[in-house]
Amino acid sequence: MSDTAPLKKSQSMLLIAAGISLALWMIPALRPLLIPLVYFNTHLHELFHALTGILTGGSVGYIHVYADGSGVAQIRGGNLVLVASAGYLGTAVAGGLMIAHSRVADRAKKVLWIVAGAMTGSLLLFVRGDLVGVISGLLWSIALLFVVPRLKADHLIFAGKFLGLQLCVTSLHAFFALMAITTSSPATTDAMILQQATGIPAVLWASLWAILAVFSVFGSLKLAWNGTLAVRS
Question: Rounded to whole angstroms, how far apart are CA atoms 94 and 102?
C-alpha cells in the first residue's frame, strides 16, 4: 500500500461522514434521526461536568438526561469555573479528537472503545432519574459494546469520524442555543451559573467557550485532513 493510500481513505471517510452529518441537519425529514445523537452528546456533556468535578476535588450526586435533550449533573464542590466550562468544551474537544484519531482502523477502534467505556461507566455510576436518560444511555452502551467488535476496518474509521463530527456539530449548535438563551432568558445555564459566581456576564462566558470550541474543532479537522499525526496501515 502506498504511503498516501491510508490518508486518502481517511479523507474519503471524513467527506462521507461530513456529507451525512450535513444531510441530517439540513433535511427536515431526516432530523428525527438526530434525536439519539443529541442524547449521545448530552450524556457526554454531563459526564465531562462530572469528571471535572471529581478531578478538581468535588463529588457527583447524579446525572439526569431529559427527553428534550437537556441534562443536568449535580456536582458538590470542585472548581466551579472548570466544572461549568467542561460540558460544552469537553464535547467539542472530544469530537475533534475522535475525528483526528480515527484515520486508521486500529486507532478508530480504540477511540470507540473509550467512548463505549465512558458511556457505560457513566450509566452505571451516575445516570439516574429520568427514564429517557437511563434508556438512551443503556441503548448507546449496548450498541457500542455490541457493534464495535464486529465492524470492519473502513466501517470503524467511518464510525469514529461520524460520531466525532456529530459531537462537534451538536456542540456548536448547543453554543448557538446557549447564546440565545443567555441573551433572552433568565433560565439557568452553565454560563449563567458562572455569571452569578464571578460577575462576568454569561454572554462572555458563552462567547469564550464558542471561540475555543471552534478553534478545537477546525484544528482537529485540519489534522485529520492533512494527516499531520503519523498514519500507519
Answer: 12
Q: Which residue has the cell 448547543?
A: 174
pLDDT digits (tens, 9 = 90+) for 57-75: 999 999 999 999 989 999 9
**Which of 218, 141, 166, 214 lies closest to 30 in space, CA to CA?**
166
* Helix ranges, the chain (H): 5-26, 34-55, 80-100, 105-125, 131-147, 153-184, 190-198, 202-226
* Rounded mean pLDDT, 90-102: 89
The residue written with cell numbers 465512558 in the block is 118
Cell (9 digits) for 97: 479528537
Q: Please give the distance of CA 176 from its chain centroid, rounded to a whole number.
A: 15
- State pTM to two decimals: 0.87
Give me the residue label for grid cell 481513505: 9
Q: What's the pLDDT score for residue 190?
A: 87
Name the average pLDDT for the chain.
86
Given the C-alpha cell 457493534, which residue does it identify? 147
- Please name which of 116, 58, 118 lies closest in space to residue 83, comparing C-alpha atoms: 58
Which residue type does 91 have?
T
Domain spans, the chain: 5-226
